[in-house]
# Entry
Amino acid sequence: MNLAHWRLLVAVADEGTISRGAGRVGISQSGASQALAQLESSLGFAVFVRERRQVEITALGQRVIEHARIMLGGLQAIRALADDSQGFSGARIRLATFPSLVSSVLPALLRDFQRRHPGIEVVIVEGTDEEVERWLESGTVDAGVVMNPAADRVPLMLGSDGWMAVLPQAHPLGRRATESGVALSELAGEPFILATGGCAVNGQRLMADAGLQLSDVRVTVRDWASACVLAREGLGVSLVPESTLPDDLHGLHGLRVLPVKPAIRRLFGLVCSPAGRASRATQVFMQELATAVAGSATGSA
# Structure
């Protein structure tokens, strides 16, 4: 049993279901179910009774959860003392990013950091990738997520995703197998819904980099989700990043989603501004996120 088990136990008790508790601590539902089974096996008794839609806490489980809350609260108090002793209490880190990462890559990383350092406030500032670059250059923010960062910026790589073609369900290109994908050249002449997501790298830029040109841009929108809705209504095809799509593609009724082939990927990296490099709290933030990202990569290997 470790701290992750106890945090999961309390999260499931608070949320009432294993799926919501798992989401709160940033793991999958299957991983949470396995972890709870291991914990209950170690204890020798059941903490929860699994119902169809929720969990009920057993009498012994209630006592265990009360002790777990006290233990986790004590740990947080110890960490707050440690932060205060290092001058971190009341520190603020300004982190800039583009919207799609706020809802995908960052939440679990930020939640874990703020759990370890309750005295450090992390303020998220959303903007386009061009705005993020300006804020970094001016020192308006301490750190920012940038697209395809150069190695000399010493980025902390957070992940990547691929570009996907979004087509109306009845589109001829949608009849092929998913693994076959769609080439950019096949999309260039189609009625096109240009979604930018507030980023300089979008469908039009991808075409230009490949020596192609969109010949029939019907609609231009900023929001990736809007492009999917318009494609579903048959207004055209679009290109969107994989991370902006819902986990369950079956929920995209009326759409066909295929990978771009050859694959084109976006890389996300966190870099510091001059102000961030001079901030002790920001450097601790970067170091701990680097450890978390490395651990996540090891666990998924």
About this structure: The CA atoms of residues 114 and 148 lie 27 Å apart. Residues 59-85 form the longest helix (27 residues). The mean pLDDT is 86. The chain is about 45% helix and 20% strand.
